[in-house]
Fold this protein.
Amino acid sequence: MKINWFKYSAPSNFYPVIGKLIPFFMFFAIVLSIGGLYWGFFQTPDVLSDQKQYYRIIFIHVPAAWMSMWLYAVMVGWAVIGLIFNTRLSYMMAAAIAPTGAMFTFLSLWTGAFWGKTSWGTYWDWDPRMTSELMLLFVYIGYMALQSAIDDTRRADQAAAILSLVGLVMLPIIYFSINCPNPAECSSLHQGSSTQQIETNILWAMLVMTIAFWAYAFAVIFMRVRNIILQRERHTKWLQNLTGVKA
Amino acid sequence: MFTVFKTILGRDLTLAMRRKTDILTTFFFFVIVISIFPLGVGFDKAMLQKMAPGIAWIAALLASMIALERLFASDYEDGTLEQMLLSHQPLIIIVLAKVFAHWLLTGLPLVLIAPLAGLQYHLSGDEVGIMMLTLLLGTPILSLLGAIGAALTLGLRGGGVLISVLILPLYVPILIYGAGAVSTSMEAGSNVQAYLLLLGAFLILALFFTPWATAAALRIASE
Amino acid sequence: MFTVFKTILGRDLTLAMRRKTDILTTFFFFVIVISIFPLGVGFDKAMLQKMAPGIAWIAALLASMIALERLFASDYEDGTLEQMLLSHQPLIIIVLAKVFAHWLLTGLPLVLIAPLAGLQYHLSGDEVGIMMLTLLLGTPILSLLGAIGAALTLGLRGGGVLISVLILPLYVPILIYGAGAVSTSMEAGSNVQAYLLLLGAFLILALFFTPWATAAALRIASE
Amino acid sequence: MILKIQNLSCRRGDRLLFENLDFQIQSGELLFIEGHNGCGKTTLLKTLVTLRRPDAGVVLWDKQSIFKLADEYRQNLVWLGHYNGLKGDLTALENLRIASVLNGIDASEEALWDALKTIGLYGFEDLPTTVLSQGQKRRAALSYLLLTKAPLWILDEPFSALDVRAVDMLQAIIAGHVEQGGMVILTTHQEVPLTSGQVKRLKLAA
Amino acid sequence: MILKIQNLSCRRGDRLLFENLDFQIQSGELLFIEGHNGCGKTTLLKTLVTLRRPDAGVVLWDKQSIFKLADEYRQNLVWLGHYNGLKGDLTALENLRIASVLNGIDASEEALWDALKTIGLYGFEDLPTTVLSQGQKRRAALSYLLLTKAPLWILDEPFSALDVRAVDMLQAIIAGHVEQGGMVILTTHQEVPLTSGQVKRLKLAA
Ligand code: HEM
Ligand SMILES: Nc1ncnc2c1ncn2[C@@H]1O[C@H](COP(=O)(O)OP(=O)(O)OP(=O)(O)O)[C@@H](O)[C@H]1O
Ligand SMILES: Nc1ncnc2c1ncn2[C@@H]1O[C@H](COP(=O)(O)OP(=O)(O)OP(=O)(O)O)[C@@H](O)[C@H]1O
Ligand SMILES: [Mg+2]
Ligand SMILES: [Mg+2]
C-alpha cells in the first residue's frame, strides 16, 4: 500500500484523520492501563527481595520515566522536521507533545519521590538521575514558557524548536547519570536496570503499562493538536467550511 | 573574516570600556555573592570548606547569566543587530566574537579572582589551582550556552528572567562536573583528571555547536 | 490619589499578565536556584538542613534583584517614565504602586513557594512557617530598597549588574536577620521574636523613607 | 496665563547651545521653534517642561519659576517628545486610559474610544501598540491631545512619521486648540501651513 | 541586476496587509512605496531585505530567490530602517568604521572622515552618538550611504528628522546613486522632488 505522506502533512487532511483515531487510542489507554495495573498488582509477588509491596509503584514510575525521555526525543524529532521542511504541522505536533512530556516527567518524579520515601527513607535526595530528571522537567517548562512568551507563532515555533534541540543533551546525561566519573563521589541511589533478573510477570506488566501510556499520549496529543489547528488555522477556508464559523 | 572577528570583538570591548563600571560590576557581583554566603549559612570552617567549590561555581554561573541578558539585547534595541544580520559576513563569526567578548568581560575576571574565594573559604593552594582550571574550562561553556538563551529571548519582556529558566538547567551538568572536580580534589588519592577531560570535551562540543544554534536563533528573533 | 495608585498597580500587573511567563519565571528562577545548590555543595543531609535558610534567602534576594532591573528601565526606554514625571500626581504614590506591583510579582510568589524549599532541604513544619514569615516581612524591604538602585542606575549601560553592586550590600542586614531567624528557630528554646520584630521595624522604616529616595533618583535620572 | 523665558542659556558638554534667549507666549499663541539639526530645539523644550534644568536664566509661568511651581505648573502641561511614551504591551486604549488617569482627567470609556476613532486608530484599539506601525504609534500618542484640558502643549516634531491625512488632522487639532485660547510650542522640519491664531517663530541658531 | 517581486502576500496577526503584489525594479530605477500609516510599507521593505519571510509569493534577485541566495544577495544591499542602527556609546566615526568592516568595505580613515564631513557632522565625530540630536543621529546613519558600493538601497523614511538642508543633500545623494545605475526603494510621507532617473511609484492600499 502506498500512502501519500505529504497529503497528511497538511493540517486540513490531518485534522479529520486524527479525529477518528482519538477514541481508538483512548480506548486502548484505558483498557491497557486497567489490565496492566491489575496484572501488576495481583499477579506479581508481594515481596521483592528486600522491598515491600510498595515496589509496585514501579509499574507507573518506570514507564513514566521512559515516556518522559521518549516523548522528548519525539518532540525534538518533530521540531527538527519543522526546522528543515518548514511544515506547520510538525511544529504543532511538537507544541502538543510538550505538556504531556512534562506531565510524565512530573509523574516519574512524583512516584519516584514516594517510592524513595519507602525505599530510601527520603522523598528527595540529590541522586544524579533524580536531579537530571528534574532538569528535564525544567527544560520542558522552559520550552513551553518560551513558546508562550512569543506572540508571533512562527517565531515561537522556531525558537522553541532550537531550544528543544539544545535541551537534547539532557537525555544522554539522564541515561548515563548512573555512571559518573568517580563512583565514590556521586554514588547514585539508582542502580543500573536489573530488568534481566526480575520476574517476567513484572516485566510484562511494565511493558503493558508502557503501551498504555503510549496510547494515552497519542490520544491527548492528538486532541491538543486539533485544538492548536483550530486556533492557528482559523483564517483558512477549509476550517471555516468545516466549522461554519467565520473568523 | 578575521577582520570581522577582530572588529566585533574590539567593538564590544570598547563599549564595555566606555563604561568602566561594566567590567567592575561582574567582578563585584561575584565577590559580593561569595562574601554574602557565609552570612547566610554560618561560619563553620569545615562546612565552608566543603561548600566552597559549589558556591564559587554558582556565583560564577549567576554572574555570567546576569550579564548575558545584555549580550544581544542592546544591539537588538538600537537596530545594530539588524545591520549585523544583513551584513554578508558569516553570522557565526560575529556570534563567536560577541561571545568571546562576553567571556573576556565576565568569565575571565572570575577565573582570576578565584584565589580570593579560596582564601575566604580556607582552601589549600592545590584546590585553588583546580578551581581556577575548572573555571577556565567551564566559564566559556557558560557563555556559549547562555548566548543561545539570550538570542532566543531577544525582545521578549522579562527576557532576563526567562533566560535563566531556559539556560540554568543546561548549566547544571557543567556545574556538577566543575564543582565536582574541586570537591574531589579535596579527597586524598582522588582522580580529578576525568572531570577535567569531561569539561574539556563539553567545551569543544559547545564551541562547535552552540554558535550555529545562536545564529539561527538570532535570525528567528529578528523576524 | 488612590485612583492613581490603583491605575499604576493595575498597569504593571496587566503588563505582567500579558506575558504569563513573567510571573512564572521569577518563580522558576527561585526553584531552580534552590534545586541547583545541593548539586554544587553536596548532598549531606545535616549540612543541607543547616544551609537551607541561607540559601532560600539568597535565592529570594537574587530573584528579586534580577527582576528589579526592569522595574523602571522599560518605562524609561519607551518614554512613559517621562510622562509619569510630568503628570502632576505625587511621584511617591507612583513609585509605591510600582514597587508594590514588583513585590506582588516577585516577592509574594517566593513566600508561597517556600514550603517546597523546605521539603527539598529537609526542614520541619515549624521551620518552614518561620521561613515564610521572614520572607513575608523581608521581601518587601528588598523591593523597596532595590527600587532606589534601579532608579539610580537608570539609563546606564550594564545597569543590571550595577544595581547588584549598589544594592547587595544594603540587602545584607535583611539577609542576616531573615536567615538568622530561621536558623535560630532550629535550635531548641530559642527566641525568634526579636528577629521578627527587627525585620518588621526595617520594613516600616523602608516603607517611609525609600520612596522619597527613589522619587528623587528618578527625577535626577530623567535629566 | 503666560510663559516667559528670560535670559535662558543652555550648554551640553563643551558646546554652548544657546544663550540669553528671551521670549514669551500667552493664550491663543502658537510658537514655532526653528533651527537646523542639533541646534538645541529639543534641549530647549525639555527645559520648558522641567525635564532639564537651564544653565542660566529663568522660565516663568505667571511670574513664578516653573521649577518652584513644580507639580502646579505641570498640571498645565502636555509634553510629547521624540519618544511616544506608549507601553508596547498595552493596547492604544489602555495607554490612553492610563495617561488620562495620570493627569487627573476623568474621561469616560466613550470619550476614550472617540479620541482613538478620531485619530484614525479605529480597528486597532485592541492591538498591543508594539505591533502598530511607526505612524500608528505616533497617532496613539497624539490621541491624548484630544482629551486633555491643559492649556500649554509642548510638542517636539509631532508630525514625524505621520501620513498626509494625519498631518492635516493634527494641524486642525492644534489650530483648534490655539483658537480656543490654548498655547502651543512646537518644532518641526516639515513645512506645514498653520494659519489660524497668531503664529510666532523663534529661530535658534548655533 | 533586477529585483522582481511576484505574487507577494503578507499578513500580520489577523490582518492581511497586501496580497498578490507584483513589481520589479532594475538598474537606474527609483521606486517610491506610498501608502497611509499602517498599510504595510515597512513590512514590505523588511521582507525585501530578508528580515521577514513572506506568507506567500517570491522575491527574486536575478531570477533566484533572495532567501536562497542569502548572504550572496545581502552583499548587494543597504538597509536603513526606522532605527538608526548606531551604538550610542560609540562615536559616529567608530560606528561608521564598524559598518564598513561588517560589509567588507575597505575604507581609509580619510574616506570615513570625508563621509562624516559631507553629511554635516564635522565637529561631532568624536561625541558618543547617544548625545547627538535626533537629526544628527539620522545623519550619522546615512553617512554609510556615501561609502557603500552596494547597488540596491532600501530606505524606510530616510528623510525623517532631517532638517531642510539635510533633506536636499540626501536627495542629491540618492539621485546620484540612481544615475550611476543603482537602484533605490524608499518610503516617505514627506513630498520630495526626486526627479532624475526613472521614478516608479507603488501605491499600497490596505
Ligand atoms: C529518567 C528518570 C528515571 C528512570 C529512567 C528511572 C528508572 C528506574 C528504574 C528502571 C528503576 C528500577 C530499578 C531496578 O530495576 O532495580 C527505578 C527505581 C527507583 N526509582 Fe527511578 N527512574 C527515574 C527517575 C527517578 C526519580 C526522579 C526518582 C525520585 C524522585 C526515582 C526514584 C526511584 C526509586 C525510589 C526506585 C527504587 C529503587 C530501589 O529501591 O532500588 N526515580 N527507577
Ligand atoms: N555631552 C555633550 N557634549 C557636546 N555636545 C553635546 C552633548 N550633549 C548634547 N550635545 C549637543 O547638543 C545638541 C542637542 O541638540 P538637540 O537634541 O536639542 O537638537 P535639536 O535642535 O532637537 O535637533 P534635531 O532637529 O536634530 O532634533 C546636539 O548638537 C548635541 O551634539
Ligand atoms: N500581530 C498583529 N495583528 C494585527 N495587525 C498587526 C500585527 N502586527 C502588525 N500589524 C499591523 O501591520 C501593519 C504594519 O504596518 P507597517 O509597519 O508595515 O506600516 P507602514 O506602512 O510602515 O506604516 P507607517 O507609515 O506608519 O510606518 C500595521 O497596520 C499593524 O497594525
Ligand atoms: Mg530634536
Ligand atoms: Mg513604517
User: Anything to note?
Assistant: Residues 21-180+198-243 of chain A form one domain. DSSP finds nine helices and no strands in chain A. The pocket of magnesium ion (ligand 4) is lined by residues D 41-42, 156; E 133-134 (CB under 6 Å). Chain A touches chain B at residues 83, 128, 131-132, 135-136, 138-139, 141-142, 145-146, 149-150, 152, 154-155, 158-159, 162-163, 165-167, 169-170, 173, 181-182, 184-186 (CB under 8 Å).
